[in-house]
Amino acid sequence: MSAQPIIVSASPHVHSDRTSKKLMYDVIIALVPSFLVSLYVFGIGALIVTAVAISSCILFEYLIQKYLLKAEVTIGDGSALLTGILLAFNLPSSLPIWMVIAGGLVAIGIGKLSFGGLGFNIFNPALVGRVFLLVSFPVQMTMWPTPVENNTSLVDAVTGATSLGAIKEGLMAGDTMTEISTRIPSAMDMLFGITSGSLGEMSALALVLGGIYLIARKVISWHIPVILLATMAVFTGIFWTINPEQYANPIIHILSGGAILGAFYMATDLVTSPMTKKGMAIFAIGIGIITVLIRLFGAYPEGISFAILIMNAFVPLINKYFKPRRFGSKIKAKIV
Amino acid sequence: MTDSILNSVLLLASLGVIAAVVLYVVSKKFYVYEDPLIAKVDEALPAANCGGCGSPGCKAFAEKLVATEDISDLFCPVGGNDVMKQVSEILGKEVTEQDPTVAVMLCQGGCDVRPKTTEYQGPKSCAISAMVYSGETDCQYGCLGDGDCVAVCDFDAMYMDEATGLPVIITDKCTSCGACVKACPRNILEMRPRNKRDLKIFVGCLNEDKAGIAKKACEVACIGCSKCDDICPKDAITMENNLAYIDAALCTLCRKCVEVCPTHSIIETNFPPKKAKAPKEEKVAVTETDVQPENSKTDA
Amino acid sequence: MLKTFPKGGIHPPENKITSSKGIKKMPIPKVVYVPIAQHIGIPSEIIVEQKDKVEIGQVIAKSGGFVSSNIHSPVAGTVTKLDMIVDTSGYKKQCIVIRTDLKNESNFEDIEYPLKTEIVADAKDILQKINDFGIVGLGGATFPSHVKLQVKEGTKLDHLIINGVECEPYLTADHRLMLEKAEEIMVGIKILLKALNINNAIIGIENNKRDAIELFKNLTKNDETIKVAALQVKYPQGGEKQLIRAILKREVPKNGLPLDVGVIVHNVGTIFAIYQAIQHNKPLIERVVTVTGKKLENASNYWVKIGTPIKDLVDEVGGLPEGTRKIVNGGPMMGKAIKNLDVPVTKGTSGILVISEDEASRGEPKNCIRCSECVNVCPMGLEPHLLMNLSEKGMYEKASYEDIMTCIECGSCSYVCPSHRPLLDYIRFGKNIVKKLNTSKN
């Protein structure tokens, strides 16, 4: 017999090779194509923002856990790294570095650790960071560098509005959609990422590609992204049919802004999304409706971050009321 | 300008009035009469909410004391006779005096004397590991060492000794609420009477196996040799299932059994060091069993 | 599209190393340790004394009540003592220790009886014999078979399902038995159909046992009453409720029994034991055990006498390999890790699995990341993460409300948890407490 004593534990005695760390790294892999696209169009700025966001998230997690909470340091599990990347993806690539760091502090400190760390947070930490920056520094957060193909310059001098921003401004000024549509990028440009906006919301194609990878790897289920985008399409479609001159068409709505980034990567965050398929459907529909409401009638041109955060707050309630169907509950139980 | 100030003042004032009326009506309508005695008794109780009396908390116990005609079997172990006397005065009912007790550990199979033959993996809880199997050692009666008793102790009267892997009871802090006794899946903890100087003699083993097996599993196991039973002048020791048990009510603390026990499984606590008249027993007096409660004192 | 149950389930690596290894006969053990609690229910009562001589197949402990079973001596020999021996539960239990009389020829008689197809016994005889010869469910639950076959007057019963699923990874005992004793099993099924007075039997076999499916399809070609159902490979399809759902699309009600939907399920091993009992008057004294493990030299399937110490089996396959850290009685999903090699084989031992260092240790539990994977794989539609939390916090009433008692302890949740949380450990604990609370309430 071996020198060490034999182990006794309760069944099961085997375990699948999935670990939470692997899940995190799968999401990171899925985000690589989009990152490459933004690197291509925004150049070094994208790299700097991303690097700063990642390192500040990891650093703050380390410092807070070690010195403030005096708890086990868990920076190795990949979740702070992922929060950093997602935060960066939601920021304009021209944002001042100190703001990015502040965003990282809020995302990790308030969004995650104040709730008790990984798994206990109610709100998506990256979005908490982004929304904090958006309401604190609205000017810098809505100054978007115009994308330049194969960008190598250090400073983005030109700034422009996002397509959603342009639509909102145009409609406020009393222009019709036909007039506005000449000013915003074409659907093809949005698909491939030649549009202005946050770092990670560039190419719809790259994002969907990563999303499909995640679904194939069973990290996320298709329910949230598909239902969310479908809800948005239907809802904006209704308004568009009523008055195409006042409301943008569903294709523009889905391809522009953070809709796809939000649907595949932010709303599907494992910790802050519901547990059951039914719950996920309700959650996704809720986000879709709130997003469209904010886009069409709110003060902000884009609303998916707020929509996700609002629905995040409902997740415990959704989990409570949307239970999986218990086996054998269809028939009245006979007491044995 | 003045209009808007006036409007808001009026609005808030009327809201306040409405709320006050609603609160008043509700408090009148849903008023529940509570015997003022309950509050009085509750005040007398120690407010530890430990559940040692059998009720879920002090308030519930107070209600039970007030509601029950004959409270002679009800007792607050934490408050002891003093509190029960106060309760008796408040309620004018008879209470019975009970001897103060303290929890003791009936296992001394620490890591050094009870070798581990397997390794348990799973949640660190005695109740769960007891469901999986008989524990990491070959003794299926002894302490599992996962500290369920320490976890339930509301009074910080217990801690795990890292060297032995066994829980230690800090006698001074123990309120004899009995939570640890209920938490232990092995029934290793027992409430035993505590006298003035807290002198106790008890068998620190529960192993019912035959001598050879018991001794192999644990060096300090009771092997059921009956030597203590034979020497006890008061017949306070009973032998059952290869195991000795000392009846605290009959024991006169003469310490004769401690001396004869070949495996040192009988524990004596808080006795002064042996007098010179029995020099060869010196060794026995300084067994680790003696040291344990001393440790706890200093830690406390 | 192959049949399966719709909700939950997992597909762990099959590792059926021994599926091509024929069933060998274990040498007769020198000493057997026969525990008196080998089945669910009341332990049997010992009716022999120290130094008694016993014959092979002689009753040594008789049924202690209705839900109990007779225990027969697996060897001819002498009762050396009645002792306490650590069994699979990890605790010392009452055992009858018998030293084999190696000179007694009955110990070495061949058990290969010729096939006997004609069923003489009537329904009453059959039930009586199943009771007398100590037949219990050999799938692992060890529920006394005669209790399961007791159908109350007026109960609607239309199907007998034969469980040849063997969804546990590694184990191949049932698979080999089906291949080698197919015709006997067919007779066994007919015996049960006669006893239950019904005309429908379905053998459920998972699709990773193509050869067994083909074999039984051939055997049942001209048979109207017995059918074969090929099933998709998915764990825990061997669970009664999942199997019935997969084959007949009927859902056993919560807290109900298969009888509530007119079905009785028996394992193929049990069917073979019933065949031997009825046709050859042979009590249940041996069974097929898969001795397996990735590092074992001669992993194989064996006919093993009940009461053989596991050490004998391990020695037979070449001893414990270097770096063994865990020995499991049963399969890797639901089997119990044993404390030492003196634990005897019982009626419920379907396999001995030897796990080495690299797979034996559990991962360090981390925070729950609410990935909902446990909810997805739970075949009973429960929320394991929630039940674990409730058990851990002592909220047993709530756990009971969340149907903790319907958990079948298949371990799928613990298997998939990416944070290595001990979900089933806590759920099992919670179930225990809830069970106690319920009995104290009644």
Describe this structure in words.
- The complex is a heterotrimer of chains A (336), B (300) and C (442).
- Chain A has 336 residues and is mainly alpha-helical.
- Chain A contains 15 helices and 3 strands.
- Chain A is globular and about 80 Å long.
- By secondary structure, chain B is an alpha+beta fold.
- Chain B contains 12 helices and 9 strands.
- In chain B, a hairpin with a 2-residue loop joins strand 7 (237-240) and strand 8.
- The model of chain B is unreliable at 276-300 (pLDDT under 50).
- Among the domains of chain C are: 123-280, Rossmann fold; 373-441, no CATH class.
- Chain C starts with 22 loop residues before the first strand and ends with a helix.
- In chain C, helix 1 packs across helix 4, helix 4 (182-196) crosses helix 7 and helix 11 crosses helix 14 (423-441).
- Chain C is α/β, with parallel strands linked by helices and 442 residues long.
- The chains are: A mainly alpha (336), B alpha+beta (300), C alpha/beta (442).
- At the A-C interface, strand 1 and helix 1 of A face strand 15, strand 16, helix 9, helix 13 and helix 14 of C.
Helix and strand arrangement:
The complex is a heterotrimer of chains A (336), B (300) and C (442).
Chain A: E1 6-9, H1 20-42, H2 44-68, H3 79-89, H4 97-112, H5 125-136, H6 138-141, E2 144-145, E3 159-160, H7 163-172, H8 177-181, H9 187-192, H10 204-216, H11 223-242, H12 250-255, H13 259-266, H14 277-297, H15 304-321
Antiparallel strand pairs in A: 2-3
Chain B: H1 2-29, H2 36-44, H3 58-67, H4 80-91, E1 101-105, E2 118-121, H5 126-132, H6 148-152, E3 158-161, E4 166-169, H7 179-183, E5 189-193, E6 200-203, H8 211-217, H9 227-231, E7 237-240, E8 243-246, H10 256-260, E9 266-269, H11 282-285, H12 288-299
Antiparallel strand pairs in B: 1-5, 3-4, 6-9, 7-8
Chain C: E1 23-25, E2 31-35, E3 45-46, E4 53-54, E5 59-62, E6 71-72, E7 77-86, E8 92-100, H1 123-132, H2 145-148, E9 159-164, H3 173-180, H4 182-196, E10 201-206, H5 210-219, E11 226-231, H6 240-248, E12 263-267, H7 268-280, E13 286-292, E14 300-305, H8 310-316, E15 324-329, E16 336-337, E17 351-356, H9 357-360, H10 373-377, H11 384-392, H12 396-401, H13 412-416, H14 423-441
Parallel strand pairs in C: 1-14, 9-10, 9-12, 10-11, 13-17
Antiparallel strand pairs in C: 2-8, 3-5, 4-7, 5-6, 7-8, 13-14, 15-16, 15-17
Helix pairs in contact in C: 1-4, 4-7, 11-14
